[in-house]
Amino acid sequence: MDEGIPVRVITGDEETTIAVESGANLRDALLEHDLPVYGTLSQYANCGGRGLCSTCTVAVDPAPEPTHWHDAAAVRFGYPRLSCCLEVEEPMTVRLLDKYVWGQVFPRQLSPD
């Protein structure tokens, strides 16, 4: 693994660790490593990481403090976090969620390992 902050990524039954530059946007880092942040439709139609479409949701632990209004609402109401609104500052575990309709996920996916 290259220098950088280790980010453990869980996709279904698979797990990998990627190295991410400090301060990098989580969505961008996941996409750079060809990890499926979006669902089948939203991979083609999304807001491009502006925090508007809610389709790049992930479960993350430990969860950093929100800095974007939409991400703050997700924390308050227990929704998945938006990967486009998260900066990687410390090691974390990210669970990529199966997306069904647009960015919708089933609540049971949010529970940690």
UniProtKB/TrEMBL annotation:
Q: Which InterPro entries match?
A: 2Fe-2S_ferredoxin-like_sf, 2Fe-2S_ferredoxin-type, Beta-grasp_dom_sf
The name of this protein is 2Fe-2S iron-sulfur cluster binding domain-containing protein
Q: Which Pfam families match?
A: Fer2
UniProt superkingdom: Archaea
Outline the extent of the 2Fe-2S ferredoxin-type domain: 5-100
Q: Under the GO molecular function aspect, what terms does this record hold?
A: iron-sulfur cluster binding
Q: Read off the CDD domains from this record.
A: fer2 (cd00207)
